[in-house]
From TrEMBL:
Membrane-topology descriptor: Single-pass membrane protein
Top-rank lineage group of the source organism: Eukaryota
The name this protein goes by in its record: Cytokinin hydroxylase
Taxonomic path: Eukaryota, Viridiplantae, Streptophyta, Embryophyta, Tracheophyta
Protein's organism: Cucumis melo (Muskmelon)
Membrane-spanning segments: 13-36
Gene name of the record: LOC103484084
């Protein structure tokens, strides 16, 4: 009896000690370590708005964003034919305000996570030269939050694993493989245009293009990556992928606050996990079917290349890793491209001159033939428009890194664990880098300097990131852009609908909050 009492006391004591140890760990990681990091960053000369525990600067950010949204709602009533491309203070009003107080580099806090904000290309150059691509990680808070979307795919993976993934994936984007994707692009765009044509014929000339282009780009990437289309089971898979993305970004404003996914939005966390698991099961079954049908199955998509890939520097990708890469291509690849096309249609709708210039170029390069891969490099002016649209409206409005160790930049020291947030929109709209016409739509700025568009710092234009981690899909994307745009411009003339409201906003990507309604007029009756 006495022994049982002693045992019960011992168990109770152990439970108490465990709770105290857990509590201690939470206090250290959520409170003490952030305070020490804050002091270290201050000692290194980084100023910034004062954080409070446990939200950091989130409350202030929300307040500034709310005030900016109210101000924008008032000005949006004005004529939509005179769009302002000066968008930085609309989409990142908190950064614009803090820049006024602290300059182009400062520290702010998402919950208990410090972020070094950078809108200074010289500092971006320094950090990209300081350590190799593999020594930078991605912020752990975002990796955890977006785990159901990207898993350990290329966008999020780090260190030697990132090198292995990058080596295995790079050949999948070589010109021969890209050329093989042309047919999916032409096929899906032609289908979309047929639907637009019949809508216009039935009397509906106004079409919200952004949603439709995103769906078409989703179909293209799904066919090119893992051979599924909107038909049959493929439609359900695409719906699940889109639902997962919406679920994850509905409530992401408390990322960085300790235990927020558990206590602030548990339903969203569970829904995302459930959808993520459903999608994983679907991809695993596609992979095992492919393996069973063997190499002679005739598939030429990205998935079949990854399944058969060999890597001399280490292990090939496991089925789990292949699943994560399929999701990464879908999420990283379709919306970014669709947004570049959609913003282009908006800008062309407000610029009849550039519509005419591009149609003339298409006539010269493509003529009456069907568009093919070999013609794309001759669409030079379309290339300038692509660059200019990605400058004014970069689909990826920021780039993130995390210091995996203390980083010494000479005059500046970045402590281990510091997250880095590079504000691409700020740099693309900075008159000190681009001149007084920074907010004008002027594709000709890329005529003589096709890479930097005349920007006076080579790290001032970063639509696809920088260094070893630069976007792996940029050539695929530019190819899709040219094919889709050529087919649209050869079919319709575009003008802006009076119902368009100019409201660029960020939901991971830079998107039009109320879509892009355009008036489409067929070029041939
Ligand atoms: C207009 C279209 C696109 C834009 C603006 C864009 C932008 C970006 C940016 C800014 C990065 C981060 C680079 C960095 O951290 O330095 C990135 C990385 C990446 N992108 Fe894209 N992207 C586009 C299209 C695509 C496509 C079509 C795919 C694939 C099908 C893709 C797949 C990826 C992947 C896998 C990474 C991670 C690369 C790495 O960390 O090694 N992207 N992209």
């Amino acid at each position: 009896m006495e022994l049982i009492c002693v045992l019960i006391m011992l168990i109770k004591w152990m439970i108490r000690v465990s709770i105290m140890v857990l509590f201690g760990k939470v206090v250290i990681s959520c409170w003490i370590l952030p305070i020490l990091a804050h002091r270290k960053l201050k000692r290194n000369g980084f100023e910034g708005p004062s954080p409070s525990f446990p939200l950091g600067n989130i409350t202030e950010m929300k307040k500034i964003m709310k005030a900016a949204a109210a101000a924008t709602a008032v000005t949006n009533g004005s004529s939509s034919n005179n769009l302002s491309h000066d968008i930085h203070s609309t989409i990142f009003p908190h950064f614009a305000q803090w820049q006024n107080s602290y300059g182009k580099k400062f520290v702010y806090w998402l919950g208990t996570e410090p972020f070094l904000y950078i809108a200074d290309p010289q500092l971006v150059k320094k950090i990209s030269e300081a350590v190799l691509g593999k020594s930078w990680g991605k912020p752990a808070v975002f990796r955890n939050d977006r785990e159901p979307m990207f898993g350990d795919g290329l966008v999020m993976t780090e260190g030697d694993n990132w090198i292995r993934h990058r080596h295995i994936l790079t050949p999948a984007f070589n010109p021969t493989n890209l050329k093989a994707m042309t047919k999916f692009m032409v096929e899906s765009t032609t289908k979309m245009l047929e639907e637009w044509r019949s809508l216009v014929k039935s009397g509906q000339s106004e079409i919200e293009v952004e949603r439709q282009i995103t769906a078409t780009a989703g179909e293209i990437i799904a066919k090119a990556s893992f051979g599924i289309s909107n038909c049959g089971g493929g439609g359900e898979a695409l719906n699940n992928l889109r639902a997962l993305q919406l679920t994850l970004f509905k409530n992401s404003s408390y990322v960085g606050v300790p235990f927020s996914s558990l206590f602030l939005y548990p339903a969203r966390t569970l829904a995302a996990k459930r959808l993520g698991a459903q999608i994983d099961r679907l991809f695993l079954s596609i992979i095992s079917n492919r393996k069973m049908s063997g190499s002679g199955s005739g598939y030429s998509d990205l998935l079949s290349r990854l399944i058969g890939s060999e890597y001399t520097g280490g292990e090939a990708l496991s089925p789990r890793e292949v699943v994560d890469e399929c999701k990464t291509f879908f999420f990283g690849g379709h919306e970014t491209t669709a947004l570049a096309i959609s913003w282009t249609l908006l800008l062309l709708a407000t610029s009849p001159d550039w519509q005419r210039i591009l149609r003339e170029e298409i006539k010269e390069v493509v003529g009456d033939k069907d568009i093919d891969f070999s013609m794309l490099s001759s669409l030079k002016k379309m290339g300038w428009v692509w660059n200019e649209v990605l400058r004014l409206y970069p689909s990826a409005p920021n780039i993130q890194r995390q210091a995996k160790g203390d980083i010494d930049l000479g005059d500046i020291k970045i402590p281990k664990g510091t997250n880095i947030w590079i504000d691409v929109v700020a740099m693309h709209h900075d008159p000190t880098l681009w001149g007084d016409d920074v907010n004008d739509f002027n594709p000709s700025r890329f005529q003589h300097d096709t890479i930097h568009g005349g920007c006076n710092h080579k790290m001032g234009y970063l639509p696809f990131g920088f260094g070893g981690r630069m976007c792996i899909g940029r050539n695929l994307s530019s190819m899709e852009y040219k094919i889709v745009l050529t087919l649209i411009l050869s079919t319709f003339s575009l003008s802006l609908s009076p119902s368009y409201s100019h409201s660029p906003a960020t939901l991971l990507s830079l998107r039009p909050a109320h879509g892009i309604p355009l008036i489409l007029t067929p070029l041939q009756p």
